[in-house]
Amino acid sequence: MNLQNKVVIITGASGGIGEAVAKELDTAGMNLVLTARSQDKLENIAAQLQNAKVVPGEITNPELPQKLVDIAIQTFGQLDVVFNNAGVMTVGAIETVDIEAICQMVRVNVESAYRVAYTALKYFKQSGSGFLINTSSIAGLKTTPQIAAYCGTKFAIEAFTDSLRVELAGTDIRVSSIAPGTVDTGLYEKWDEEQKNFIYSGGVLQSEDIARCVRFILEQPGNVLIPRLLVVPAAEPV
Fold this sequence. Notes:
CATH class: Alpha Beta
Mean pLDDT: 94
Helix content: 40-55%
CATH topology: Rossmann fold
Low-confidence stretches: none
Radius of gyration: 17 Å
Number of strands: 7
Number of helices: 7
Distance between the termini: 33 Å
CATH superfamily: NAD(P)-binding Rossmann-like Domain
Structural class: alpha/beta
Order of helices and strands: EHEHEHEHEHEHHE
Shape: globular
Strand order of the largest sheet: 3-2-1-4-5-6-7
């Protein structure tokens, strides 16, 4: 895909991977619709970009996905790509984990991702083309103690993504996932030292590393699809 003047929606765009992808796709000449909870953070990022529209909101709001699609079309006249990236991580041992926080994570990582994906894909079906990339994780391919529920959300995204890919095979609508290993995004700030030592034991990637990979997926020729791109630090032990 030639990304010049194409239009992308990015969820979870106020920091980390979402922010880095916004900046990378901006350099590719794309027009951007950015959403996250913090209007201030979004506006600060948008001020650094060539052509970005900010739409603050809670990703768990059922009305937000359609609002994003509508604003993309109203602002830029089209929608070509959705980077379905919003997510949170809640971890803990069985005895101490906060079940309410776990359930909220499921709403963000799974329910909201499904709503964004289906809303975007309905538009892509009407327009005849489009590209959806879901943010997964190495935790969607391997399990680790104390992050069972998070792994479950990412395994769900992996299955969801691949089933959509198969359903849309033979059309001009592409579906893929990016599965990062350890990335220095602040997700692990509240972990205890033992957990941090484990997760950082193989080093870390930067958000910009993942952003380059997202662009790589999008820029493949029309006869090529990368269904999943697993990206980990070279010394990642899992």
